[in-house]
Design brief:
Blueprint lengths: L14 H23 L1 E2 L1 H8 L3 H13 L3 E3 L1 E2 L2 E2 L1 E2 L2 E2 L1 E3 L1
Antiparallel strand pairs: 1-7, 2-7, 3-4, 5-6
Helix pairs in contact: 1-3
Length: 90
């Protein structure tokens, strides 16, 4: 399904597919870092992957919804380091 309008530039027609590929690439880089390091904050993932914290924070909820990553819980509360929640691969 394409949501580009007839007056939009040609680049708009391929944007959804490009965006999906980019998101998938980001998710795989995040998961690889989590598998290598066991548990990381978004800031630590940014250092490992070369991505920005913002890019990582967009993907983490998606990874959690699909059951691929989760926030580390410690005594019923989210574990935090440097103000970030700590994540792990599932």
């Amino acid at each position: 399904m394409n949501f580009a309008r007839t007056c939009d530039p040609l680049s708009s027609y391929g944007a959804p597919e490009h965006s999906a590929r980019l998101a998938g690439g980001h998710a795989s880089r995040i998961l690889a870092a989590l598998h290598d390091e066991k548990s990381l904050t978004a800031g630590e993932m940014a250092e490992c992957t070369g991505m920005t914290v913002e890019q990582i924070c967009r993907r983490l909820p998606e990874l959690a919804r699909t059951g691929l990553a989760q926030v580390v819980q410690f005594e019923g509360a989210d574990l935090q380091r440097d103000g970030y929640r700590v994540w792990e691969a599932v």
